[in-house]
């Protein structure tokens, strides 16, 4: 009687199957640990929850054009962060951080843009209280207008570039593949932004609708306008 013996086990290298084909593993593509990714997401949540230019611009767009304009503004500022992340990988953001003149030019342009948005909101409050609309002031912000305000506001904020130059690389190890690791971190940041800001703008608009006061729209426009002007002034006088 002949006994059939099982074939000998093949010594398969790590990361390959028995046919020599590579098997996808998270660590083979991105060396980020789940703890590192979780820490970065927590940092993004803290930054998003902190009142600042991004949240103010999104709420301003929600006030001027409704929830669609607020979501469009969030998409715009998210694309702005994608630009800054790419600039960080290419070294352009580091050049900005090392050049005082380039930083100041971009900072003052961003400050002027925020102040301009604030003045527009204050004008809207003034004429809304009087029951009329001035010439040159649109009756409502379009979806594309919200997108444009979010994108331009983020591109003209050099502090975003500094963040992606100094903080962002801290979560990418020396042995990591830079582009895949940066892509994962950027997607995580985008997910936080696209969740938090639309949620806050929706809460903002719903609370505003429930409060039945004739003077509330003008008051909200004044608050948004003053906040934007203050943020613009702070950005203008802020040191590197």
Portion in strands: under 5%
Biggest sheet descriptor: none
In DSSP terms, counting alpha (H) and pi (I) runs of 4 or more, how many helices? Answer: 9
Number of strands: 0
By secondary-structure content and strand pairing, the structural class works out as: mainly alpha
* Cα distance spanning the termini: 86 Å
Helix content: over 70%
Low-pLDDT ranges: 9-24, 134-138
Order of helices and strands: HHHHHHHHH
Based on Cα principal axes, name the global outline: globular
- Average pLDDT works out at 77
* Spatial extent as radius of gyration: 24 Å
Subcellular location: Cell membrane
Organism: Planobispora siamensis
Keywords: Cell membrane, Membrane, Transmembrane, Transmembrane helix
Membrane topology: Multi-pass membrane protein
Structure in a nutshell:
It is found in: Cell membrane. About 70% of the residues lie in helices and about 0% in strands. It has a domain of about 160 residues.
Description:
By secondary structure, the chain is mainly alpha-helical. The chain has a domain at 53-132 and 160-237. It is built from 9 helices and no strands. The protein starts with 25 loop residues before the first helix and ends with a helix.
Write the layout of secondary structure elements.
Blueprint: H1 26-29, H2 34-49, H3 53-90, H4 92-98, H5 100-129, H6 143-155, H7 158-166, H8 178-210, H9 216-237
Helix pairs in contact: 2-8, 3-6, 3-7, 3-8, 3-9, 4-7, 5-9
């Amino acid at each position: 009687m002949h006994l059939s013996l099982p074939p000998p086990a093949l010594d398969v290298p790590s990361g390959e199957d028995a046919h020599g084909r590579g098997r996808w593993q998270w660590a083979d593509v991105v060396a980020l640990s789940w703890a590192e990714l979780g820490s970065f997401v927590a940092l993004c949540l803290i930054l998003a929850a902190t009142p600042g230019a991004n949240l103010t611009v999104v709420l301003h767009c929600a006030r001027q054009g409704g929830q669609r304009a607020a979501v469009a503004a969030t998409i715009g500022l998210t694309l702005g962060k994608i630009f800054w992340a790419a600039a960080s990988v290419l070294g352009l953001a580091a050049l900005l951080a090392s050049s005082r003149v380039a930083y100041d030019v971009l900072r003052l342009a961003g400050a002027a843009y925020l102040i301009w948005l604030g003045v527009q909101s204050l004008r809207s409050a003034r004429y809304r209280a009087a029951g009329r609309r001035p010439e040159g002031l649109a009756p409502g912000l379009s979806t594309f207008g919200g997108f444009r305000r979010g994108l331009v506001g983020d591109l003209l904020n050099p502090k975003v570039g500094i963040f992606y130059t100094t903080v962002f690389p801290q979560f990418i190890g020396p042995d990591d593949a830079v582009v895949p690791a940066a892509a994962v971190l950027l997607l995580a940041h985008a997910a936080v932004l696209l969740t938090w800001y639309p949620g806050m703008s929706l809460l903002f608009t719903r609370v505003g609708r429930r409060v039945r006061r004739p003077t509330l729209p003008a008051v909200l426009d004044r608050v948004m306008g003053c906040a934007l002007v203050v943020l613009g002034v702070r950005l203008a006088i802020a040191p590197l």
